[in-house]
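Record type: monomer structure entry
Structure origin: computed from sequence
Chain ID: A
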Amino acid sequence: MSTQADHGHELIPRPEPTPEALRAALAVVAPGRLTEMQASKDEAFAKAVQWQSLSPVRSWVLLWARDIEIARRPDLFTRYVRAQADLEHKDPLIAESALRDLGAVLDEAMNV
């Protein structure tokens, strides 16, 4: 597990960006998504072989590291859920604000 900035309460330490560490972290913060993770991992590895490139595997690691960062931090998770819920609000100003908030959450989760 790696060092982390102070974001308040965190459910678990930030995992290393390896498939094994990400899977172990997901098993704690969102175990219901393990099947989804495995299916997307299988797809990424198949594409890597087909394309003769590690790009699909790198993308897989980044996506799951981002999702786990959101899930392990209640502050980010709350903001993420709220923004998702407001994306299709009938008030276009609320929907637009939600889109900006969602982008900010995803950016923060990726820039750790």
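Annotation 1: The two ends are 13 Å apart (CA to CA).
Annotation 2: The chain has a mean pLDDT of 93.
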